[in-house]
Design brief:
There is one protein chain. This protein is mostly beta strands and 184 residues long. The protein has one domain: Immunoglobulin-like, CATH 2.60.40. Helices cover 0% and strands 48% of the residues. It is built from no helices and 15 strands. The strands form four sheets. Strands 2, 4, 7, 13, 14 and 15 form a six-stranded mixed beta sheet that branches. Strands 1-3-5-10-8 form a five-stranded antiparallel beta sheet, with no helix packed on it.
Length: 184
């Protein structure tokens, strides 16, 4: 059996920002990924949203506001497939089709709630008190030479930014440290 080395980094606000106040103050976000992964599955990582508070926290869909910076071994940025604009920026009465530059692999929480995968296309997500909500995604495709192709094996530097917003709060701009991932 091969041990999997997991990496984790907590997303933080810029030092110049005021500390969070309101419901989002109880939420911490972590980025996790295995240091070595098979290339056949794409580059997989998870966002973990933890509600340490005593009340539920409603957030706008974090997948809509997830920014991904992926660098190759030489430090060059990789272009990801196009995505739909965040739902919060589009004024439409009917449901909007969401297109992400990654595949949503799993959505689960520590309470064991079922059928959470459908929340990937909903406008909001409710984080239960004292629970962790884990969203696992995989970057399967990149744009190279103007064409979409499978992400090739290699060493990658993954960095994410997240605009964590809520209908009841002013929002938070969060930033991760880099995680280095080898696709084999």
């Amino acid at each position: 059996m091969v041990a999997v080395q997991m990496q984790t980094t907590i997303l933080k606000e810029a030092p110049s920002k005021l500390p969070p106040a309101g419901p989002l103050a109880a939420v911490t976000v972590a980025l996790t990924a295995a240091a070595r992964q098979p290339a056949s599955g794409g580059l997989s990582f998870a966002l973990e949203l933890k509600n340490d508070g005593d009340a539920p926290v409603v957030v706008h869909n974090p997948l809509d506001a997830l920014g991904i910076v992926l660098l190759d071994a030489k430090g060059w940025p990789l272009k990801l497939p196009p995505r739909s604009p965040p739902r919060i920026t589009v004024n439409a009465r009917e449901p909007m089709e969401r297109v992400f530059p990654f595949a949503v692999r799993a959505i689960e929480n520590t309470r064991g709630d079922q059928e959470l995968a459908k929340t990937a296309v909903e406008d909001t997500l409710t984080l239960a008190p004292k629970s962790v909500h884990r969203i696992t995604v995989a970057i399967e495709k990149v744009i190279a030479g103007g064409k979409e192709q499978a992400i090739p094996p290699g060493r990658y530097d993954l960095h994410v930014v997240l605009a964590l917003t809520s209908p009841a709060d002013r929002g938070r701009a969060l930033d991760s440290n880099s995680l280095f991932i080898d696709l084999e």
